[in-house]
Amino acid sequence: MQKKASLYLLLLLIVPVILYGIFQISSLSEDEENINLIYQNQLDAILFSVNQYSDDVVNEWVMSLEEAITADNPDQELNSLLEVNPGIRMMFITDSVTGKADRIFPDSLSEDPLVSVVNGVLWERGRDIQNLRTYATAGYQKIESAQLESGEDLRTLMLYFVLKDKPGNSKRVGGILIDPESFIQVNLGPRLQTIAEERFVITAFRKEQEQAVFSTSDSVQADGNEESMAITKDFWLLPDYYLGIDAAGESVFDIIRARTLLNIGLLVVMLLILAAGLYLIFRNVRKELRLAQNKSEFVSNVSHELRTPLALISMFAETLEMGRVKNEEKKQEYYQIIHKETNRLTGIVNKILTFSQMDANRKEFHLHDADLNEIVCEIMDTYSFHFSQKGFESDLKKKEHILPVKADREAMQEVLINLLDNAIKYSGDAKKIEVLTGTKDKYAFVRVRDFGLGIRKEDQKQIFEKFYRVSTGDIAKSKGTGLGLSLVKHIIDNHGGRVEVDSSLGKGSDFTIYLPLIQTENV
Ligand code: ADP
User: Fold this and answer.
1) Residue 369 belongs to what domain range?
2) Which of 107, 169, 289, 373 is the most buried (most CB within 10 A)?
3) pTM for this prediction
């Protein structure tokens, strides 16, 4: 019953703690995922802004082209644009009737074979151009790109669009031929550096070769590859290139991971500490419960113990008082009984008093040099009459020389009396008691051995607790307070010694007390 209650208590305390721990650990990894998602989104947004910026650059060029062709001297205007932008190889506008590249900037390239390549592509993309015109009518200027395959030159990309021209000329197409890598390095490079600062590495790769064409970090430039990037995105304008971004140094992901692991570790440690704390509480509660139970049994035991001698004293005193006993011998016998029972009462009351003193830590011990052998002999002498009266055979085997110890004589006598009383009480029919003194290591010992009922292993741990009495078997039948052995232990602890019990059920018990020897030449 008590065990069950303790178990429920333990479960009640430990289950919520464990559940909380599990919840924390799982929500930690969830947090990790969320943070990672936010991080990925942020990286995504950065690459988006790079694409946006590329669009802005090209849009500005388109506007410059549109403005230039309406100006007085378009060549001059555009030449300065071409000069500062090595990424632009050529610009052109088509004729609204033929649809072929008609005006070429710089003018010097008018006869370049590139022009016919451009015209070829424009012809091929007739349908797309038609779509661009539809968009333009709706007010949306879309920019398309086409890779130019002009002999040895594989790196020219044509960006084409419908010009926002005067209403009558709205069918003209404009184009900008760029070198994508130079565009990335010269036009986007500074911007990428600004965005990346020290916190990110942004790299542009050429698709087929998986090779970095530009990076904000020198180390990536040399051996850059896609795997080293947290995320990658295509360039909107440059179909053969893509962008990658990663954190400079330790990535947020790594930091989160390390942090999460640390958190989980700390949580596990906390859980362990909590579990240990709960276990201690559980143990204490169990002990308190047992003590409360023992205490209530103690009250009934003591009442019982007191009632018997009181009843006897009262009965024999009354008989004597009434003068009914004429026989002198009988009278003597009754006096003896009254005397014996009074002694027993005094014994019990003394035991309780000593106990209450010790329990309140008020009992003082006066340790003096003493010979353990002598104390034992003295008590055995006093008890020899007692033994023979009860039909006990006693045997004292003592070490021949003295056993010098520091002891409170009275207290040590009480210890021995308790052990001998118990031996008598729990001997059953095996009426034999052996007492042995000796030395072991740096201790003097005295052992009280009986051949009686013995104590079960599981009870042996508890018999030294206050109020504890074995409540099963024959032992339960004899009377007692459950204080004797707790007194013994308390006294011996205060002497710097220890008590050991060795017992098996039905065979008898050995109680041995050890006291530290004082070092003298005699030992
Ligand atoms: P009690 O007043 O009950 O004897 P103790 O504290 O002296 O109280 O002993 C506690 C319990 O230990 C006893 O109730 C008994 O069950 C057990 N015990 C003590 N000494 C012996 C012994 N020599 N043989 C068997 N059981 C013993």
Assistant:
1) 364-516
2) 373
3) 0.55
> Is residue 282 within 8 Å of 10, Cβ to Cβ?
yes
Structure tokens at 91: 């610009």
Are 215 and 201 in contact, with CB atoms under 8 Å apart? yes
Helices 252-321, 2-70: inter-axial angle, 10-degree rounding: 160
Whether residues 372 and 497 share a domain: the answer is yes
Alpha carbon of 57 to those of 154, 204, 205, 386: distances in Å? Answer: 23, 17, 20, 117
Q: What is the domain-level CATH number for residue 456?
A: 3.30.565.10
Ligand 1 in reach of 217 Cβ (< 6 A): no
Give the separation between CA 359 and CA 362, rounded to whole angstroms: 8
* Co-location of 409 and 438 in the same domain: yes
pLDDT 10s digits, 70-91: 888 888 888 888 888 988 999 9
Q: Which of 12-16, 277-281, 336-340, 468-472 shows the lowest mean pLDDT across its residues?
A: 12-16
- 245 backbone dihedrals φ, ψ, rounded to 5°: -140, 145
Asked if residue 469 and residue 500 are part of one domain, the reply reads yes
Which pair of tokens denotes residue 94?
């088509």
Do 164 and 241 lie in one domain? The reply is no
Pairwise CA distance, residues 10 & 279, whole Å: 8
For the CA atoms of the chain, what is the radius of gyration?
52
Q: Within a domain: residue 142?
A: yes
Q: For tokens 């508890």, what's the residue?
A: 462
Residue 53: closest CA among 259, 167, 169, 202: 202
From ligand 1's centre to the CA of 396, what distance in Å?
A: 22
Using most ligand atoms within 8 A of CB, pick from 417, 485, 489, 501 the residue to mutate for ligand 1.
Answer: 485
Identify the CA nearest to 90 among candidates 144, 192, 160, 20: 160
Angle at 280 between CA 275 and CA 283, to 5 degrees: 125
| Domain assignment present for 317 | no
* Residue 480 in contact with ligand 1 by CB distance below 6 A: yes
Cβ–ligand 1 distance for 455 under 6 Å, the answer: yes
CB of 405 shorter than 6 A to ligand 1 = no
CA distances from 16 to 19, 172, 265, 266, 279 (A): 5, 75, 19, 18, 14
155: in domain:
yes
Q: How far is the CA of 124 from the centre of ligand 1 (A)?
A: 111
Q: Can you state the angle between helices 484-494 and 409-425, rounded to 10 degrees?
A: 150
Residue 463 CA, ligand 1 centroid: distance in Å: 7
Ligand 1 pocket check for 487: Cβ under 6 Å: no
| CATH number, domain with residue 141 | 3.30.450
**Cβ of 488 less than 6 Å from ligand 1:** no
* Distance, CA of 255 to chain centre: 20
Question: pLDDT (tens digit, 9 = 90+) per residue, 214-224?
Answer: 988 877 654 55
The total domain count for the chain is 3
Mean pLDDT, the chain, as a whole number?
A: 87
Rounded Cα gap, residues 70 and 130, in angstroms: 23
Q: How far apart are the first and last CA of the chain?
A: 53
On whether both 96 and 200 belong to a single domain, the answer is no
